[in-house]
Model the fold of this input.
Amino acid sequence: MNGKTKKRTKTSPCIFCRIADGKAEAYRVEENKLSLAFLDINPFTQGHCLVISKRHVPWWHDLTEEETRSLFSLARRISRRMMRTLHPDFVCMYARGRRIPHTHIFLVPSFGGDLLDRFFNALEKAQEFPEKIARVKEKKAMKRTAGLLQGKEL
Ligand SMILES: [Zn+2]
Done:
């Protein structure tokens, strides 16, 4: 690896490092040399998996090329298996790391109307909202709205 690799110990505070080392339990799904997939213990839907780098790297964009290939290759393999076995509409993939800053990809089988589907629908509506509200705040629109509420215009 590179010089940024931190020495992991039995007492590592990082839960994903402990899982990668077999020191903490997980419902392991599949692994390769550099990456590991396991079930999220708080699933959004059945089959929700996390795919992590075995090395402690906080953010996915700081992985090496080899680790990146490994991570996304494993994510793709698991997603294709989800499609065959769980039959979702598709597999949603995203990476955050706010709570556990150790590279992990969320793989969530997505079904219309499920929790994540509703969440992303709300986000997409929020993306559209500023344009609508901007129009409402234009001077001409504000005068018209004031007129409506004053009963001057119907
Ligand atoms: Zn870690």
Observations:
- The beta strands are 28-31, 35-39, 49-53, 90-95, 104-110.
- The mean pLDDT is 89.
- The first helix runs from residue 15 to 20.
- The CA atoms of residues 23 and 54 lie 13 Å apart.
